[in-house]
Amino acid sequence: MTTSAKLRDILVNELNLEDVTPEELTDDTALFGEGLGLDSLDAVEIVVLVQKHFGVEIKDMEEGKTAFQNIGSLASFIDARKAQ
């Protein structure tokens, strides 16, 4: 399973997203705003989920801004950190 596919599963199931399935999401799906419509509390939860499931830490707001653009950017961030 790719990081992106695992991430879609985690987001839908752990954030209890209703009316959406992991298969409906793409790498271009925005996490906030027009996309999934997540908020700042969800962002905190995502930080915890990324640490728990992937062992990757998002240390500050600047890293978060880059990583949280969409599902693909978060998956790329995770893959890059795991490779270090």
Automatic annotation (TrEMBL):
PROSITE patterns named in the record: CARRIER, PHOSPHOPANTETHEINE
Domain of life: Bacteria
Pfam family, any one: PP-binding
Entries under SUPFAM superfamilies matching the protein: ACP-like (SSF47336)
Record keywords: Phosphopantetheine, Phosphoprotein
Record NCBIfam families: PRK09184.1
The name this protein goes by in its record: Acyl carrier protein
Originating species: Desulfocurvibacter africanus PCS
